[in-house]
Amino acid sequence: MLELEVIPERGLTNGRLELILGMPLGDCIEVLKSSYSTVKDVQLTYNEEQPLDKEIVLDLTNDGVKLIFDQKFQRLKIIEIYDTKRITLKYCNNVFSAPGTVPTLELIRQCFGPTRAGDRNVRQQLFLLLFRGILFVFPLWSAGSSSPIFDADGLEFSEPSVEGSLVLSKLSIFSGSNPLEAVSPPIPIEYCQGHCFAKCIEGVRNEGSNAVTSLRVKILETSEAPDSSIKQLERTISFRDSPQDVMSSLGAPDKIFYKDEDKMRIHSQSQNKLPTSKTSDYFFNYFTLGLDILFDGTSHQVKKFILHTNYPGHYDFNVYHRCHFSISFPISSYSHNASNDSLSQTISVTTFTKWSEVVDYVFQDKPEKPVVLSRSSSTNNTNPFGYTFCYNHHNIIFEVMKNSHIASVIIYSPQ
Description:
The chain is mostly beta strands. The chain has 2 domains: 2-181, Sandwich (protein yfey like fold); 189-412, no CATH class. The chain is built from 5 helices and 26 strands. InterPro entries: PHAF1, PHAF1/BROMI. Pfam families: PHAF1.
């Protein structure tokens, strides 16, 4: 059974397991995986058709804990404990909920202080005790009394003993003072130390060119000093950059991966479909940026960028953190959305833009038939998500999921 310290407006911790508001989804999954001896069952739920309409939830079913993540930024927004019988909870080292300790309103007020009167939800028959960053919910029927619980004015309990009979049913930890307006806080500074995160990655074109030639990366950086703060830096990486150029801008990659084959070679315009070089191209993998950079194995220059959106339901989900990208395209004069005022305007395609919107605004005609990308299952790897579709536009390939969301953007050298 989990035993955790409750920290209002921050999270749950016991020294080994830390669940902190604002932590990225991928980091949280890794923390739970490393705690496999105590966290036995985790279920992930999301909206498959409209993944931006509903939060992503990690449900620790054996422990009665839900971790609710913002669906856009994929950071922990709310921690909800919905079954207090399956977990031991402490505040300032005082146990207020455990198998042998009933979490009554009286006990919780002793632990957290009697500075809040509480509110009634008449429609749902609940009593709510709200402190900044934490909400306690008590069903009124848990008092087990047939007589009225509140006085005639409905402001106070009819008897002092009521506080000892109301039993906690749910606890929520969040950032701010109103759980209904809770948002995921910024990434905690301890998660930025030793990692490279980006606020946004922008595609850059040379003047008069339709091809993206470089990426402008807005990096969130911090030092390992105790009093350090998060700073935003801007770096540009371009085609033909060397590995040294890239590392001086972004730091060392999380991993270097050497390609052993090119499965898209069959679609090349070259008549020679066989490899012509004995050297292997290689990737710099920046998992926390959601970015892969491919280098030519012979020239050792950048030849391709891959931006990952990390949507649930995709083959690469949870391999990368979400890349928040933005690439501007001129609105096509043939688009039914075009007007005399919009012919010189652009549309920004972002992580959240659906492919149907890209087609409506950017393409003069319907895009050509896509290449179907089918990652077939193998002995040690399965793909339950099916195939995706790859569409080309100038020097960009969009990988699109069945729900019309963009899974990845591949930008290759225009030369």
